[in-house]
Amino acid sequence: MTLMGDRVGELAANLAAVRARIAAACAAAGRDPGSVTLIAVTKTYPAADVVALAGLGVADIGENRDQEAGPKAALVAALARDAGAEVAAGTTGLRWHMIGQLQSNKARSVAGWAHAVHSVDRERLVRGLDRAAAAADRVLDCFVEVDLREPAAAAADPGRGGTAPDAVPDLAAAVAGCAALRLRGLMAVAPRDGSPAAAFAVLARLAAVVRADHPHADALSAGMSGDLEAAVAAGATHVRVGSALLGARPPLH
Length: 253
Ligand SMILES: *Cc1c(COP(=O)(O)O)cnc(C)c1O
Fold this sequence. Notes:
Structural class: alpha/beta
Bound molecules: pyridoxal-5'-phosphate
């Protein structure tokens, strides 16, 4: 078997295991597995892995850095063209999700490759994304990212991404008021310490508040490799899974 074939086999096995986890979590919660979208988080992994995942039926790709994702999305399109019609068909339908912290000066670049932004956490970014999406003649799906850490922990380590829970309704209204943005719902990462279930319960309550004002904002982006079951139990509609699909990443620092 070729090296490439080995990698596809590995990705296929990992994908089957993750899909089985999602199905089990949905069964436990009495939910339809079709109500959960799996976003494969391909950060640090090559474009060839994206093409392989697309070939295995993955339609949603997550990235956390604009500098990495823009070129990767372009390379995926080029690889697909070279590989012929069948591969091209699988990759042109891909939806790219920006899930990482984002500076407003990157809005234009992100609007060039992303279909959805999960890390909307301040008004300045909302305005930047709206202008960029309008200039590109597109509509960007947006999730308002919530910082679920205790206020003291958030104050001790600011700039981690996400807005304070009490600022969520205003930020959601700002997104909803933009012509080139579509408010989809909320997003969060469970804090490192504490129970993911408790954190996702807080997120679900906030999401219900937002939905009361914006009935179409019915999506909830929560759950990663380590805590997707807790997220599905709390109502997640989008899980963002990296290492369980692609393998462990080298530590960031
Ligand atoms: C990297 C990342 C993920 C995926 O994390 P894994 O633990 O590898 O599944 C999900 N969400 C965000 C915001 C990320 O940065």
